């Protein structure tokens, strides 16, 4: 939208009003802005995921419902989820489309007026009961970082399998052979997919991965309970003279931070005694001691992609639901080193 404004010589506000069919713009200005928008590829004739000119006229009074879990660490204050949420809101604002945000923990979905509801975007883990309630509105539906077999909806995920496959392969390339994955693989589809990425890397290089020997399936907790449980596991290994694994691949950065702290508090060195990796690249993990190796997730881009998919779906309701994977990038920092 900014490019259209710069090229046409008008403010972004005037361009937004024009593309949304709102009054207050002269016909000559409107025609010039629409011409520039077409030349820049903003409207596509038959396909793509931008909103077309005629649809702006019909939807400018509509709104999108955004549903956040708002429990524990999945809320708009979260370092991770807030960026996805902001990506959604920023994209909708750029398009000049209204938004209503509700929590999955209340019953406001029944009170939403559906006459102008364009579609629904859910962010994170939302209970099946709530999803079924929302699906009654019979509008296009996009789920971010979640899917449910009972709900017909498009979904958007990070490429969790490939991201963990790459970071695990890096550890294996350094010579690590005794690796463990830490995370509750039943917590979410993303955690399970990351476990699959870990297993795939081990099976590619070592022919086998026994879940009993390479998985610590610990209940997910964003506080200190996981750290305490892991310390007990370390004590058990010591008492039984079980060698410490050379590396821990964690389902996300929060888990990795707790694991790294527990190791250090128990007298182990990271990466001297073992390496630790996470997933998400939260803002603060580069400042940990040592800085955490992780997998970069383009959080704002995922939010924006959810909006573009929603409006593509509005125009293409006849097609089957799609699952989009957004690629990730490994970031190797000082929490990873050569095995002892």
Automatic annotation (TrEMBL):
It comes from the Bacteria. The keyword Transcription applies. This is LacI family transcriptional regulator. PROSITE patterns: HTH_LACI_2. The keyword GTP-binding does not apply. GO terms for molecular function: DNA-binding transcription factor activity; transcription cis-regulatory region binding. InterPro entries: HTH_LacI (IPR000843), LacI/GalR-like_sensor (IPR046335), Lambda_DNA-bd_dom_sf (IPR010982), Peripla_BP_I (IPR028082). Residues 1-53 form the HTH lacI-type domain. Gene3D superfamilies: 3.40.50.2300, lambda repressor-like DNA-binding domains (1.10.260.40). SUPFAM superfamilies: lambda repressor-like DNA-binding domains, Periplasmic binding protein-like I. Keywords: DNA-binding, Repressor, Transcription, Transcription regulation.
